[in-house]
Amino acid sequence: MKRYINIIRLLLLNEIRNREAMIFSLLLPLAILILIGESDKTQVNYVYAGIICIAFGSMALVGVPSQLTNYRENGILKRVKLTELSLGDFLGCVYTAQVVFMIIQAVIITIVAKIVYNLKFDFTHYFLLGMGLQIILGMLALLSIGVVIAALSKNTRAASTIGNTVIVTMLFVGNTLFPSTGWPKAVKNVVKFFPMNTLGDGIRRTLINNSQTMNHFMFQTFSLAACVLIFSVAGLYLLNKSVINH
Q1: 71-97: buried (b, 16+ CB within 10 Å) or exposed (e) per residue?
Q2: CA torsion angle 199 230 2 136 (round to 10)
Q3: Contacts for 183-187: CB closer than 8 Å, 24+ residues apart
Q4: How far apart are CA 109 and CA 132, in angstroms?
Q5: Rounded to an integer, what distance in angstroms lies between the CA atom of residue 208 and that of residue 219?
Q6: Which among 6, 13, 82, 136 has most CB atoms closer than 10 A?
């Protein structure tokens, strides 16, 4: 257990020291919040959920793939496989460190939105505990997709390019900052399964506009859980294969 704690601590410290990660995963979402808040404070309540998802996605879909690809290129992942620590255990440490960092992101963004732009919460109290579960599942779903991106990327530049493409798609198509009501029905049916869309919808319904229902909650939760399961298994398999072939 002590070994795992030390690895998680080192990974977290490494993330905090990473200027690029800090800029894109924390400062960029804050910049978006400030730009929208300064232009129209009434929009902050709607975009708050999207900005939280952008912060999570920036770290999970861009930062993590680049980090894991760099570890693979430098032979770190191959050396991990030669120790008592399995690749799955190492990924568990990466996930834990990133979840801690994402929680810090969410707290900072919430404080700024609340104090500076008067963010108004309107809780659906019945689903508050479920909201906590959805947030964790949303983090893990995005992180799992990030591992798949890392496994499919030949180098850190490719990982960054693919990750940015995925997050931009989820941002503009997936009802993150902008409603997806104008998209064709076929697109909307696909978009509703995007983790950033699903998590953002859960946050808005539970914390912002008090409109969460059991049907929506069950769909959101099972959709996120399925995403975690599918991409976690695929990511571990593909990453392990890429490390062996590297």
Answers
A1: bbeeeebeebeeeebeeeebbebbbbb
A2: 10
A3: none
A4: 17
A5: 19
A6: 136
205 near 119, Cβ under 8 Å?
Answer: no
Q: Tens digits of per-residue pLDDT, 163-201?
A: 989 988 888 777 777 776 677 777 778 888 899 999 999
Write down how long the chain is. Answer: 246
The DSSP secondary-structure symbol of 179 reads -
Q: 3-state class of 74 per DSSP?
A: coil
d(CA 110, CA 112): 5
- CA–CA separation, 142 vs 65, rounded Å? 11
